[in-house]
Amino acid sequence: MKQLKNVLITGAAGGFGTVTIEALLKEGYTVTGAMRDVAGRNKKTAETLEKKGVFIVEIDVTNDESVVEGVRKAAAQMGSIDILINNAGLGAGGIQEAFTAEDWKKVFDVNVFGVQRMTRAVLPFMKQQQHGLLMLISSLGARLAVPFQGPYAPSKWAAEALAESYRLEVSNLGIETCIVEPGAFPTQFIGSLLQPSEKERIADYGAIKDLPDTLMASIESVFEANPEQGLNLVSDAIIGLIKMPHGQRPMRTEVDTMFMGELVAPLNQQLAEANEKLYKAFQMEHLTKVKI
Predict the structure, then answer these.
(1) Active-site annotation holder among 29, 152, 205, 279
(2) Residue pair 118/61 in contact by the 8 Å Cβ criterion
(3) Is 279 one of the annotated active-site residues of the chain?
(4) Domain edges within the chain
């Protein structure tokens, strides 16, 4: 089995993206980082990564042509794409009623359709070489929805269902699929949450209308009280999964030191057992085995 060495990761301009790239480089992987606005607001980050030996491609995951061209360049630069890490994401914060359909489209265009665009663009290269790893950076919020996340949690639920389907459909091609579910971490992600477009809709919610802002204002103190919740936990989990023998990676990996991870882990185990019974009932259990 050919070793997985060449990695394409979206959302490379910050947060989990940059810390994961650092970890990948340290382990000797060849990395292409995908980001938007390489010549503009992300220029400095792109230049810094390039100096460290990272290939940079401009990809807007909401644009079909941008994705196809960026993936083509990444494959040309590295010679192959062995691992795709779908890391780019858009969060949202606020009372759900205040989010318009257009707000929902913005979030789903990144978190769901963006994952589908990237996966479709990469799969022809992986199918040709008959090996590969598709990795989705999801969220514990995809398994336990909490209020005031608007379209974010539903988008992550959808993205995980997408990954589940791909898992069975591409396993016979030597391509494995896995999901990483981080909890809340101190990243720029929290500061860039999409806000609802029609906040006037929540005027009659009483004291509840102020809860989203109150929760966001308190998040920094939460992280200060939990210093072990560092970004390296996510990059360590990603590296650990990549290093596992092909075909033996768990479908879901929770990354959290606070409390949600402990709540989600048994749910994931229960889901894995339910899926096993479901696939067996439909005589599809062989599709859970990755061709080596």
Answers:
(1) 152
(2) yes
(3) no
(4) 6-288
Torsion sign across C-alpha atoms 104, 109, 110, 116: positive
Q: Per the structure block, which two tokens stand in for 95?
A: 């009372």
- Fold for 6-288, please state it: Rossmann fold (3.40.50)
What span, in angstroms and rounded, lies between the C-alpha atoms of 43 and 253?
33
| Prediction pTM value | 0.95
CA torsion through residues 65, 9, 191, 141, sign: positive
**How does pLDDT run along the chain (292 residues), one tens digit per residue?**
578 999 999 999 999 999 999 999 999 999 999 999 999 999 999 999 999 999 999 999 999 999 999 999 999 999 999 999 999 999 999 999 999 999 999 999 999 999 999 999 999 999 999 999 999 999 999 999 889 999 999 999 999 999 999 999 999 999 999 999 998 887 666 668 899 999 999 999 999 998 888 887 777 677 667 778 888 999 999 999 999 999 999 999 999 988 889 999 999 999 999 999 999 999 999 999 999 8
Structure tokens given for 12: 């490379």
